[in-house]
Amino acid sequence: MIGCIVACSLVASLAGEALAGYCNACHLPVRAGVHASLACNDCHLAGGRSQSDPAAQSVAAAGCVSCHRGYERIFSGTMGSRKGERAFAERTYGRHDPGFFPANCGGCHIQGCGSCHGSGHRVSRPGTERCLACHKGYYTGWDYVGRAPREDNMRYQRGAVANGETFLTMLPDVHFRAGIPCSGCHTMGSMVAGRGGKKCRECHTPDPTVLEHRIAGHLEKLECSACHSAWGAQEYGTFYLRFADTRLMDEFDLRPGGSPDYLKSSYLKRQDLPPLGLNAAGRVSPIRPQFIAFYTDIDAARGGSRENLLLAAEWRAFFPHTVQRGTATCEACHETPRRFLLEAAGGEIYRLRQDGLPLDSFWQQRGQRVVNGGFLPEGHYRSMAAGSMAYRRGQVEKWRTFINRVEPSSNE
Questions:
Q1: Nearest-CA neighbor of 312 among 377, 240, 252, 259?
Q2: Within the chain, how many helices (H) and strands (E) appear?
Q3: Which residues, at least 6 apart from 143, have a Cβ–Cβ distance to it below 8 Å?
Q4: 255 C-beta neighbours (distance < 10 Å), count
Q5: Are 406 and 314 in contact (CB under 8 A)?
């Protein structure tokens, strides 16, 4: 131990191989990859101070940004700050349980550069599976490789397992099938700048021979994902059940949650064409619930208190990573008001109030909001759905493309 103390006291005055010799008296690091040739103090003495973990967020990754300048800004973004998730938890579930966020929402989000690039001395570029260690379940990322979250009941926890969770096997994104990793669009530069990633038109140019691309309104008012997303994971009604007596949990037969005194379930999960709304830029975009949040204190409810308290009914414009070359048919938008949360009153498919939930419908705008955009105004939809002659001609042309692709049913 005395030898280690003496060695460490000399660190600041030594460099290169000499320093490595003293460090190796106690440590046996195995450096690999692009950093294999670096001396210990290149990272661990950043700024003249010894850093046990030079990649940690707590020290602003001092050992990394001495070379990779500016990348510390990623810690103030979504992956590092968790501002959005924390704010949501505090104004919803946190009203009933101040400890809800750390108990249920602390599993992901980066703790430093090593969260993505690997820990210790084996730093590497993150591959897709490393991204999916956090971008799993209901969070965007799993859909890119064709995974969708299963229902929460234990009877559905079967089949393939990835990132510690079972999943439904779905059609992957066309870019994933082409071998493009997450980093193909989500570069470090884009994340540091606060951009989600590359925009579609940075790589693709609208083809004027394609019917949908010839319509000016589509190119001006729609995100590409509004038409090219084959499916999107959607969770309608997110229930957190709190237990003082955890022995009662077995009665619900739900998979264990992130906290020992909570279980999570949902009213309905779907994996079809996502509803549409407006994003922050005012363009038509896929939207999904995130979250229509309910809370129940099981012990209080058994004593007569209300259960299934509606804490928020919030949607978010998003980009499903389920892009395909083809698109939905014309009527999937122009003749489907429910897709814009304009389901007619009295025509509700799911009767939520009869199920004891304080909401008329998941597919009616009333009582809900899009936190990073808005819903399409009903008047706008009505004009879009009016069915002009130009629309009818386009619809016929679209369907002819399907008819012309039909293969003969026999060789006769």
A1: 240
A2: 17, 10
A3: 170, 173, 231, 232, 233, 320, 321, 322
A4: 17
A5: no
- pLDDT, tens digit (0-9, with 9 covering 90-100), for 77-136: 878 888 888 999 999 999 999 999 989 887 677 889 988 888 768 888 888 999 999 899
DSSP code, position 388: -
Contacts of residue 408, Cβ cutoff 8 Å, sequence gap at least 6: none
**Residues 248 and 298: beta-carbon distance below 8 Å:** yes
Closest CA to 393 of 213, 209, 211: 211
C-alpha closest to that of 20 among 45, 57, 49:
45
* Gap between the Cα atoms of 104 and 321, Å rounded: 25
For residues 79 and 108, the answer to whether their CB atoms sit within 8 Å is no
d(CA 28, CA 256): 39
Closest CA to 23 of 112, 68, 35, 42: 42
How close are the terminal C-alpha atoms of the chain, in Å?
88
Nearest to 24 by CA among 11, 35, 13, 33: 11
DSSP state, 83? H
The token duo for 8 is: 């460490």
**Per DSSP, what are the bridge partners of residue 309?**
295
Report the amino acid identity of residue 294.
F
Q: What are the tens digits of pLDDT across the range 247-294?
A: 999 999 999 877 899 999 999 999 999 999 999 999 999 999 999 999
330: left (phi over 0), alpha (psi -120 to 50) or beta: alpha
